[in-house]
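Researcher: I'd like a candidate sequence for this fold, 279 residues long. If you have to choose between options at a position, lean toward the conservative one.
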């Protein structure tokens, strides 16, 4: 779970990027002592995520801006809805507006896409996982948005677990060799997942001490065969070119997990806005 402290550096970076030497427009036309109220809206059906970031933005920019949430992350929005209100110096509200909306729109977009994907898995045992295909610097937030949308987090970073991929296998000389080396070096304290892209590699992997096996870019028939071969001995994850259209079919093969990089790398930001009025 992200915290205000864990996102402070990113919020500062975003504000500095947008403000630069100062908001020349706002400073030219808005009096310093003018107070205002504002309402932040999500303008379309969505799964809400990112309201705490609005507070984080204004806490960093100007503690005199009071942020009052009107909805909570995870709530479903049917159409145009007010998600929080702001009260304080008009200059600060206008200066922080775009940065706050960028966070809200991006995270709500990820949560919304994730919730659509999760609905495709209804009636199956498969759980939806994200990947490390995240926007640099945004990983904590984007993975939070996936959880908000009903998905599950895979690795947060390279230090989370051992995931032996095709390039590791090529350099180690094979699936069995790679898993044996990993187990010898990490012991039983860390989980080991190994990627396979053929049924022959799967057969080899099933004879190792791997805790989980990733089926990379297999077609539906191959995945069905893989589930039969594993016979519940080790959890299977399907990965590679998974889309909303194919999710249900992949889940019906009987795999335990489906990872989908598109949750974070291809989510479209939701339309959001801010309306301001004088006090």
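Model: Candidate sequence:
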């Amino acid at each position: 779970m992200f915290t205000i402290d864990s996102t402070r550096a990113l919020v500062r970076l975003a504000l500095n990027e947008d403000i630069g030497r100062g908001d020349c427009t706002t400073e030219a036309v808005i009096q310093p002592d003018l107070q205002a109220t504002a309402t932040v809206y999500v303008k379309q059906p969505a799964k809400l995520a990112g309201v705490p970031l609005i507070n984080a933005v204004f806490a960093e920019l100007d503690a005199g801006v009071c942020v009052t949430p009107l909805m909570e992350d995870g709530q479903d929005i049917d159409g145009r809805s007010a998600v929080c209100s702001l009260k304080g110096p008009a200059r600060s509200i206008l200066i922080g507006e775009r940065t706050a909306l960028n966070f809200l729109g991006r995270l709500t977009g990820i949560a919304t896409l994730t919730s659509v994907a999760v609905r495709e898995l209804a009636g199956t045992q498969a759980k939806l996982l994200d990947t490390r295909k995240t926007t640099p610097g945004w990983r904590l937030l984007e993975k939070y948005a996936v959880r908000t949308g009903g998905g599950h987090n895979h690795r947060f970073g390279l230090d989370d677990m051992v995931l032996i991929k095709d390039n590791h296998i090529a350099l180690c000389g094979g699936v069995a060799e790679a898993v044996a080396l990993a187990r010898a070096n990490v012991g039983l304290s860390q989980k080991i997942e190994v990627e396979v892209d053929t049924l022959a590699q799967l057969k080899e992997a099933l004879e190792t001490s791997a805790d989980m096996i990733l089926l990379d870019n297999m077609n539906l028939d191959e995945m069905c065969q893989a589930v039969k071969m594993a016979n519940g001995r080790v959890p299977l994850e399907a990965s590679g070119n998974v889309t909303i259209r194919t999710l249900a079919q992949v889940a019906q093969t009987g795999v335990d997990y489906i990872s989908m990089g598109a949750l974070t790398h291809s989510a479209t930001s939701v339309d959001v806005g801010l309306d301001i009025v004088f006090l």
